[in-house]
Amino acid sequence: MKHINWDNLKILVIVARSKTLRRAAQKTGISPATLARRIDDLEHELGVKLIERVQAGCIPTPAGEDIIKWAKEMEEISFEIERAVDQQDFHEVEGTVRINADELISYFLTSRFAEFHKLYPNIEIEIITSHRAYSLTRLEADIGIRTFRPEQGDLIIQKIGTLSYGLYCGQNYYKEHQSIIDNQNWKKLDFVGFDEVRLHFETEKWLRSLPNAPTPWMRCSYALGIFDGITHNNGLGVLDTFVGTEIADLLHPVIPHIPELDQEIWISVHSGLRSSARIKAVKKYISDLFIKK
């Protein structure tokens, strides 16, 4: 048997977890065709069928299930080695720290890390923006910041603040519609919100519950699109209050605070990284940012 390509084993595990090549492609950034070829290569190396591709997705064969089990054990060992090296602090405070957060928290962070870079010039920051929470156990990210309390994995979790929301419009839009806005005559106003796929978002449910308010005429698939739409005077929409406060010269607070939309902010790291100097430095800096906010 030829030498086994460990990268192909990792692909096998990802495809098995994802259930379909399409979902695996979204996670890895590798095309479905290339993923399929990598699985074929691994099957050729091992001389056994590992995955059955059916209409519903990818189903491991009995041999595939055994190989996937062993590959997951190898994956966990590799994670443990990486975490163990991080804990030893063999080096000065340096290296890369990957932070996973949603769009507006990412926006908040990127505008506030200049001071951190002065304090720790040898630490590089990667901010991974997504609605999906990345796995800290599988080292998809080092630090997670979410508006829900993580329940899975061996994590160190800390509440660092509250995310508040308000209803805003652009300053020029307010000047043109001041009396209508002040009287909250929603049916005569324009709105900017999320698209139909994101109707389950609490902010969107609240926006569409306003009495007689029309459906947002401008609908976006991402939060910063709503931010741009509001600041460019396309109508009213919901934003984080820290954004509203930060660019107060561009925005008018129609409803400055919507208490029922408040969300707790949680920061989490894997317990295996608790002693890493660079992780501790970044975690403390972020925690202080939100506590001071």
Automatic annotation (TrEMBL):
Name the Pfam families on file.
Answer: HTH_1, LysR_substrate
InterPro entries tied to this protein: LTTR (IPR050176), LysR_HTH_N (IPR000847), LysR_subst-bd (IPR005119), WH-like_DNA-bd_sf (IPR036388), WH_DNA-bd_sf (IPR036390)
Q: Which UniProt keywords apply?
A: DNA-binding, Transcription, Transcription regulation
Q: Ranges for the HTH lysR-type domain?
A: 4-61
* Stored Gene3D superfamilies: 3.40.190.290, Winged helix-like DNA-binding domain superfamily/Winged helix DNA-binding domain (1.10.10.10)
Q: Name one GO molecular function term.
A: DNA binding
PANTHER family recorded for this chain?
TRANSCRIPTIONAL REGULATOR (PTHR30579), TRANSCRIPTIONAL REGULATORY PROTEIN (PTHR30579:SF3)
> Which family does the entry's similarity section mention?
Belongs to the LysR transcriptional regulatory family.
Name of the protein described by the UniProt record = LysR family transcriptional regulator
> What is the organism of origin for this protein?
Commensalibacter papalotli (ex Servin-Garciduenas et al. 2014)
